[in-house]
Each structure stands twice: as C-alpha cells, then as structure tokens.
From TrEMBL:
Taxonomic classification: Eukaryota, Viridiplantae, Streptophyta, Embryophyta, Tracheophyta
Originating species: Musa balbisiana (Banana)
The protein, known as: Eukaryotic translation initiation factor 5A
Keyword tags: Hypusine, Initiation factor, Protein biosynthesis
Region (Disordered): 1-21
PTM remark: eIF-5A seems to be the only eukaryotic protein to have a hypusine residue which is a post-translational modification of a lysine by the addition of a butylamino group.
Length: 137
C-alpha cells in the first residue's frame, strides 16, 4: 500500500440527489419540473399532436418556486425532464426571542430553534405573512 494521498477534484456536480428523470408526457399540472435550471411548479401543460416528424410535444408553463417568475419550455413528450425533489414542511410559530430567533413546533412535536429572522433591510421591507392559530380552552 502506498502512503500517497489521492485527491479527486470534481468540476461539476451530478445533481443526482437534487432531481430525478421523468418522462415529459407524464408530468401534470401542479407537479414540479426544472425549466432553464430553475425548480418550477407546473401551472399549465398542453400537448400537441404528433406531426410529420413523429413526436408529440409538451408545452410547460411553470412558476419558479423561489422567485415566482413565469418560465416556459417545450419538450418532446417521449423525452425525459428533470424533476426536483420537493418537500414541504409546515411549522407552527411558538415564540420570537429578543435576539431574533424563532421557536417553531415541528409536525412530530419537537421544537426547532435555529432559525433567525432576516436582518437585511430589503427582506424586512417585504410583507411576511405568518399564520398563527391559538386554541383557547
């Protein structure tokens, strides 16, 4: 065995854990798709009939899940598209500490205390809606 260390520099990320392939013809409205490198929620899908070159085409209109911009793409229905792994987690707000940290209740009853309110002025200027439900007994 050699005492040499081997380093492998990766120039690109395969992204295997971020997306998975799915046939374009099976993607439906309210699903998710990657359009121009951005994760989008599909708001409209239309499929054209097969033409003289033999492929039906799917026209996708999606809304970027991070910045709400509208994106469009046209893909042959038999080709694969990248679909992002999207999970949604809902929290219930318990408290906001004086130093700006949130105390959140997870779905399984644990608390999450490592999230801090933004300090950037542009983010603070935006409206943030927080739904708080209080049970009075």
């Amino acid at each position: 065995m050699s005492d040499e260390e081997h380093h492998f520099d990766s120039k690109a990320d395969a992204g295997a854990s971020k997306t998975y392939p799915q046939q374009a013809g099976t993607i439906r409205k309210n699903g998710y798709i990657v359009i121009k490198g951005r994760a989008c929620k599909v708001v409209e899908v239309s499929t054209s009939k097969t033409g003289k070159h033999g492929h039906a085409k799917c026209h996708f209109v999606g809304i970027d899940i991070f910045n709400n911009k509208k994106l469009e793409d046209i893909v042959p229905s038999s080709h694969n598209c990248d679909v992002p792994h999207v999970t949604r987690t809902d929290y219930q707000l318990i408290d906001i500490s004086e130093d700006g940290f949130l105390s959140l209740l997870t779905e399984n009853g644990n608390t999450k205390d490592d999230l801090k309110l933004p300090t950037d002025e542009t983010l603070l200027a935006q409206r943030i809606s927080v739904s708080v439900s209080v049970d009075v007994k």
